[in-house]
TrEMBL record:
PANTHER family: GLYCOSYL HYDROLASE (PTHR31490), GLYCOSYL HYDROLASE FAMILY 10 PROTEIN (PTHR31490:SF3)
Domain GH10, chain residue ranges per copy: 172-469
Protein name per UniProt: GH10 domain-containing protein
Active site residues per record: 404 (nucleophile)
Gene Ontology molecular function terms on file: endo-1,4-beta-xylanase activity
Pfam families assigned: Glyco_hydro_10 (PF00331)
Coiled coil ranges: none
A GO biological-process term: polysaccharide catabolic process
């Protein structure tokens, strides 16, 4: 199925093709790996495939090796019926080993002939060798069945309630009721200062979400618009709101490498020493004030696309930021946070391998970096590519969070909703994903790209999707009678529960948790 484990990303020899190559058959008994080579710019090695179907989920993979360059960004592209090429996967390939490409695509229309070919990003001459190619189709039903199977295994757990009397005898026919009171998996949204004093908005939020992130209120341009003028009153109030409702909150962000998002007074600091002093005051002041309050911190936002601080303070600036943040708040999980890693493979600055390489570089330098942040500002989502990228990132062994999910406002409301559902289902079903945040902070004028409601809190189509999925992914209530063994079993979503057992006009109530685990959870109740 589509969840076939991702092999090592780099290896001395190419591993066998996934799915035995799927519909991508080439080579022969004397050439089982099907090696193909090309000079840059030539459509070979190329795989020609026929009669691809609309809406089918196609997963693609192969191994790539270079000659003529030590390393290069290689893009796998699909050209259906010669109508233009699209990226379906990328890899940072090398000359000293084989590198693994994993990607995929969905077509808008059926095609009679399509070509999958490979290009290096900078067009320098080199030889590309490809082996163990695979293209495996899945119907939408097969894809959905795999999602549901993963949810059953990773987001739910079977529990058995055993009811006995004080002498230990089984109680048969006792009425058992369980109700989920809190969810284990964090699903949340960005909020802004507009939630303060707005009781209707606050109730709407806490009725749905168990996680939050502040849209702009913690960013440096908000907390210190001019040097020495610190403004924490708004984030303090927002933090009090989420704390009062037991909502976990992410810290976003300490620094942002984008010059346009840097306070003007900071940009005007011409001396590296003055900039370093300002940076140290920022991180120490922020982390000391909020020590222990934020579960996560996005330490240096979007460092794959921008380099304001690293350009001025040196290439080790990010490493230093992570080190100081870890010392200041050792209980917080520190994250990279980046866009266009999961949304597309057309951005050469933020491919999945580029992200992984930067993360490894920071950790090798001593950074305590324990979280993978994927923003998720989607246009039209490519779900097979999304899964492939998550599979590759999962090999890093770190929790993956979607930190800013939305769908571009260029789509109409119904299309936004359809795409949002695709993204949320894929994110929730992937076993390496630990949490999901929507970038839907509500303002009178709307939201960044996508709202869930209008200003009057009336659901938009995207809000209907979120409400439906939140209900689908919780155990609203389960119940029945104990069997001949005095037991009642059910499968519930991970989280906190209230258990009520009634027998012969006697009722007992208790609480229990369903935490991740493969074994059945056993709860004993004495009547």
């Amino acid at each position: 199925m589509a969840g076939t484990a991702t092999p090592p990303i780099l290896t001395g020899q190419p591993e066998p093709a996934l799915y035995n190559g799927g519909i991508l058959k080439f080579g022969n008994s004397d050439d089982p790996d099907g090696y193909r080579t090309t000079e840059t710019g030539v459509f070979s090695p190329a795989f020609v495939v026929y009669n691809l179907n609309k809406t089918t989920m196609y997963t693609f993979s192969c191994w790539v090796k270079l000659e003529g360059a030590s390393n290069a960004l290689i893009t796998a592209r699909l050209a259906p019926d010669n109508t233009g090429a699209r990226c379906i996967g990328t890899v940072l390939a090398r000359s000293d080993c084989w590198a693994f490409v994993k990607g995929g695509f969905v077509l808008d229309w059926p095609t009679q002939t399509a070509v999958i070919f490979f290009q290096n990003a900078d067009k320098t001459p080199m030889k590309i060798t490809v082996a163990s190619g695979s293209l495996q189709p899945f119907t939408t039903d097969q894809w959905a069945m795999h999602q549901q199977d993963t949810i059953r295994k990773r987001r739910k757990r079977v529990a058995t309630i055993h009811v006995a009397d004080p002498q230990g005898a089984r109680v048969v026919g006792a009425s058992v009721s369980v109700q989920q009171t809190a969810k284990d998996f964090p699903i949340g949204s960005a909020i802004a200062s507009t939630i303060l004093g707005n009781q209707a908005y606050q109730k709407w939020f806490v009725d749905r979400f168990n996680a939050a992130v502040f849209e702009d209120e913690l960013k440096w341009y908000s907390t210190e618009p001019t040097s020495g003028l610190l403004r924490f009153d708004v984030p303090d109030q927002m933090l009090a709101f989420v704390r009062s409702h037991r909502v976990m909150v992410r810290g976003h962000n300490i620094f942002w490498e984008n010059q346009d998002a840097t306070p003007r007074w900071v940009k005007n600091l011409t001396s590296p020493d003055d900039l370093r002093a300002a940076v140290n005051a920022r991180i120490q002041g922020l982390m000391t004030r909020y020590r222990g309050e934020f579960a996560h911190w996005d330490v240096n936002n979007e460092m794959l696309h921008y380099n304001f601080y690293e350009q001025r303070l040196g290439p080790n600036a990010s490493m230093e930021f992570f080190s100081v943040a870890q010392d200041a708040d050792p209980l917080a999980t520190l994250f990279m946070n980046e866009y266009n890693v999961i949304e597309t493979c057309d951005d050469p600055f933020s491919t999945v391998d580029t992200y992984a390489a930067k993360l490894r570089e920071l950790r090798a330098g001593g950074a305590i970096l324990e979280g993978i942040g994927l923003e998720g500002h989607f246009s039209r989502p490519n779900i097979p590519l999304m899964r492939a990228i998550l599979d590759k990132l999962a090999t890093l062994g770190l929790p993956i969070w979607f930190t800013e999910i939305d769908i571009s406002s260029k789509f109409d409301a119904q299309t936004q909703a359809a795409y949002l559902e695709q993204v949320l289902r894929e994110a929730y079903a992937h076993p390496a994903v630990s949490g999901v945040m929507l970038w839907t902070a509500l303002h009178p004028s709307g939201c960044y790209q996508m709202c869930l409601t209008d200003w009057g809190l009336n659901n938009l189509p995207t809000g209907d999707v979120v409400d439906r999925l939140l209900n689908e992914w919780r155990t609203l209530q389960a119940g029945g009678q104990t069997d001949a063994h005095g037991a009642y079993s059910f499968s519930g979503f991970l989280g906190e529960y209230i258990l009520t057992v009634t027998y012969n006009n006697r009722t007992t109530q208790s609480t229990f948790s369903l935490s991740p685990g493969d074994e059945t959870r056993h709860i004993n109740v004495q009547m």
